[in-house]
Write a structure and sequence with these properties.
By secondary structure, the chain is an alpha+beta fold. It is built from 10 helices and 10 strands. It starts with a helix and ends with a strand.
Length: about 270
């Protein structure tokens, strides 16, 4: 599956570039425009970029499905025509085959094994670099696309095997928000925790189909787990993730705590 892995890596780099271009066309850019200049061309540009990102993600999913069928023996990997990739052909013929080294940095696990023995806490600069990695960008893009296309939700859950986490004292917190939230694994929890290979922490996102309101923001602790610009308690919101939160957990994946807050993009429900 070497060829398809190479293609997937290239496509992920394209996705990374599109993410960065998309950031240049966000609402902050509109605020810099002269008042007499209509923002329509920039909105159209952003729409086209989002369409490209969607196509890139669909291509990644198609390749992963092919890789899974090859792995299960349902499909044979197609042979490349000679000369298709000269650089690859030369390297394969002139160098002895080396066992592939297992990559552990910034990789998200398909399964959710028990947490390994805790290593020393990573410095904030490390977490910042990790949150900017292509792997995390892809996770965010897949999540946000699944909020718009229901068929993608099962694909997301199958790929990342997220653990449900909830605030078990949310009812008590309705009376007193000064009580710290207690996070525990729960089948009906409002949070998804995704295990990161080689790391002692998890990426945390809100569950799908959550209508974000005053109860989820306060007693449900969403306001403590995520930065929520422009939130107002009188409205309800749909949401997208701009940055996942970082959580730590005990060895049994029962007790959870926040390491770093994430960030949400709220869309008011009228």
């Amino acid at each position: 599956m070497g060829n398809t892995n190479i293609e997937t890596d290239i496509i992920r780099k394209v996705l990374d570039i599109l993410d960065k271009v998309s950031e240049l066309t966000n609402h902050k850019l509109f605020s810099l425009l002269p008042p007499d200049l209509p923002p329509k061309p920039f909105k159209l540009l952003r729409k086209n970029i989002d369409g490209l990102r969607r196509n890139v993600l669909n291509t990644i999913w198609d390749i992963e499905k092919i890789e899974e069928r090859i792995k299960n023996g349902d499909l044979k990997e197609p042979k490349r025509k000679e000369g298709f990739s000269p650089k690859e052909s030369i390297s394969q013929s002139s160098q002895p085959t080396q066992p592939e080294k297992k990559k552990v940095n910034f990789q998200i696990s398909k399964n959710s094994p028990n947490i390994q023995k805790k290593s020393e806490r990573k410095p904030p600069s490390y977490i910042s670099r990790f949150l900017s990695s292509t792997i995390v960008r892809e996770l965010i893009a897949r999540y946000n696309m699944a909020t718009e296309e229901p068929i993608r939700k099962s694909e997301f859950m199958n790929k990342y095997q997220a653990i449900r986490v909830g605030v078990i004292n949310s009812v008590i917190r309705r009376q007193n928000l000064g009580i710290p939230p207690v996070f525990q694994s729960a089948n009906d929890g409002d949070y998804y925790a995704v295990k990161v290979d080689g790391q002692s922490f998890y990426l945390v996102l809100p569950r799908f189909d959550l209508i974000f309101d005053e109860l989820s923001y306060g007693p449900g602790a969403m306001g403590e787990v995520f930065e929520c610009p422009n939130y107002h308690p009188q409205y309800r919101y749909r949401l997208k993730v701009k940055k996942p939160a970082i959580f730590d957990a005990d060895s049994g994946q029962k007790q959870w705590k926040i390491i770093e807050r994430g960030r949400l993009d709220l869309d008011k429900v009228l």
